[in-house]
Design brief:
alpha+beta, 3-stranded antiparallel β-sheet
């Protein structure tokens, strides 16, 4: 769950809803960024479905009594999430192996998991690396392929953009943004940081502030079919 607290309520967006919006964003990137057009639909599937593992977790929000707020994806206990991450990637693989490869690389890159000495984390990384090896062999791809690396970056970029939309009040100024974004974005395309701002228009014609690359990877005014749906809650669960 993505949780944004205001003075009067918690604004909550499910992870899968956020991921679907990531897919909407991805659909507006210029075609040359995908490198291989034959893999475009698989990568769009990966971006749209990368948080499938959260669907059942987000069905019932859990109250974090210590901080008097619902658990969010940032503070939800790690070890219960691991089997759900695996399940989500399994479900993607049932639909497309290459999409599952990109999702697996994304989750296996999480620093909190990779740096942990906990047996569950070690087993998780080992399982996903085995999946990655199996899929690259099955599809006759090089694990070091720059195409795979670019598709992973595109997933992570769309993930960041969508999180930005979900975690910030529409129209927020730089000093009001979530701390993660005040110094720009981590993901690089063409070697440049994504720091400039543009806008999408949702199906309600309401402008949404989202990051736009200095290289103009997105259309100037991209019209998305859907925007993240959030629900609002006041009080304790």
């Amino acid at each position: 769950m993505i949780v944004r607290e205001t003075k009067t309520e918690f604004v909550m967006t499910t992870q899968h809803e956020h991921a679907c919006f990531s897919g909407e964003i991805a659909a507006h990137f210029k075609s040359e960024l995908w490198i291989d057009p034959h893999l475009l639909e698989a990568v769009l599937l990966a971006i749209r479905e990368h948080d499938r593992g959260w669907i059942s977790l987000d069905e019932t929000p859990v109250w974090y009594d210590r901080i008097k707020a619902p658990y969010s994806f940032m503070d939800y206990p790690l070890y219960p999430k691991l089997p759900m991450y695996t399940r989500g990637i399994d479900e993607v693989e049932d639909r497309n192996a290459y999409a599952a490869l990109i999702c697996s690389l994304h989750y296996a890159s999480f620093k909190a998991i990779r740096a942990s000495s906990h047996p569950d984390c070690i087993a998780y990384i080992q399982h996903e690396e085995e999946r990655q090896n199996r899929i690259t062999q099955q599809l006759r791809l090089s694990p070091a392929s720059p195409v795979i690396a670019q598709h992973l970056r595109l997933l992570q970029l769309c993930d960041e953009i969508s999180l930005y939309v979900c975690m910030n009040e529409p129209g927020a100024g730089k000093d009001e943004e979530h701390p993660w974004y005040r110094d720009g974005f981590e993901t690089r395309l063409h070697g440049g940081f994504l720091r400039h701002m543009g806008s999408f228009r949702g199906n309600t014609n309401e402008a949404l502030s989202v990051p736009r690359s200095v290289h103009g990877e997105l259309e100037e005014q991209a019209c998305v079919e859907r925007v993240p749906t959030a629900f609002r809650y006041r009080g304790s669960l």
